[in-house]
Structure formats: C-alpha cells, structure tokens
Amino acid sequence: MKETVLFLTRHGQTEWNLQKRMQGHQNSALTTLGEQQAEWLRERLEGENLGAIYSSTSPRALHTAQILRGNRSLPIQQQASLMEINMGIWEGMNTDQIEQEYPLQYTHFFTRPDLFIPLAPGETYSQLEQRVTPTIERIINDNEGHEVLIVTHRMTLKVIMAHFLNKSLQELGELPDILSTALCKVTLTDNNTTINLYGDTSHYQ
C-alpha cells in the first residue's frame, strides 16, 4: 500500500453551537466565526495535494467542505454515513436542560459512550461506529496513495479517531474534545497507522 493521508475535520461553529443546543441529524447554519474557522483551515491546507474530498450530508458540514475546497476542481462526495450521531429527542434542546432532565444519559454521552442509551429514535455509539467505520475503510481503499479530506462532526470524528487509535467505546470518553474545524491527520501505509495530528487548532487566528 502506498502512503495514504487522511485529513479529517469537524465543521465550523454553528448558530446552535453558540446557543449550546444539540444538533445531531438536525442542522443550523455556520456562524460568521464558523465560516472564518473554515477559511483559516483552507489556508492551512492550501499546499496539500488533495485527491478527494468527502463530507457528511449535513448542510453545516457541506458548507464547511465548500469553503475548504477553495479553488480546487474536486467534487465534494457526500456521505450520509458521515453524519453526526442521531441524538433523538435531544436534538434542538439546550445542553443545560438535557443535563437537568437526563443527568445519567447526559454524563454517559460524554464520559461513558459505551453505556449511553439514546432516547428514541436516536443511535448508540456502537451503531454510529458500525455505520462510519466501513465508510472510512472504503474511502481508504478507494484513494490508496492519495491525500483525502473528510469533513464530519464532533462525535463521529471522535469515533473515527478512536478506531485509528485502537481505543474501545469505553475509552472514547477519555479522548480530548475536537473543536470546530480542528484538524486530525492520519498517515496509512501497509503495516503502519500514524496519527500525525489530533484535534489541532494551530490555524486559529
């Protein structure tokens, strides 16, 4: 296998991020700062020879991907399987309210993902892992020897990085948070997976 490089990021800040509301499969627009964060990352990635760009189908991720693409003539390949975890009835709710009404589930959501039981319709972390991991494997196989950009979401990206770090869902809660447009970089060869960056925000200005 030739060296394959994945650049993975979370979308820029959104209106609901500012309002501390859970998004999941729902959506809110990027803020002015969210667009600016994407511009900063676009500048950082300018010298990279990207061979493909993939994005979650959520408008906030797509908008981020469009900014990151810059002047490249690459299509943005939309993947529903890269969407955020489905948070069920929490979507649109304020995190303070959720923490008050569902204290145990809220704690599990962030610190013990393996124990998290969603409120219908929602997804478990195991279900998220089962939908996103095959997509990542397919992207790697389809783009061997190339540099690839993947735009996704906070918890989805943590699950992807846990996969590369060989961490269990129980250990997922111990991984550092991933901020808006924070950059992860993974280099893959035949017998090696190297995590070059995890949640790096050195492009913030």
Automatic annotation (TrEMBL):
Q: Which UniProt keywords apply?
A: Glycolysis, Isomerase
Give the domain of life.
Bacteria
Supply the PROSITE patterns for this chain. PG_MUTASE
Keyword check for Isomerase, yes or no: yes
InterPro entries (alphabetical): His_Pase_superF_clade-1 (IPR013078), His_PPase_superfam (IPR029033), PG/BPGM_mutase_AS (IPR001345), PGM_Phosphatase (IPR050275)
Which PANTHER family does the record associate with it? BROAD-SPECIFICITY PHOSPHATASE YOR283W-RELATED, HISTIDINE PHOSPHATASE FAMILY PROTEIN-RELATED
Name of this chain's protein = Histidine phosphatase family protein
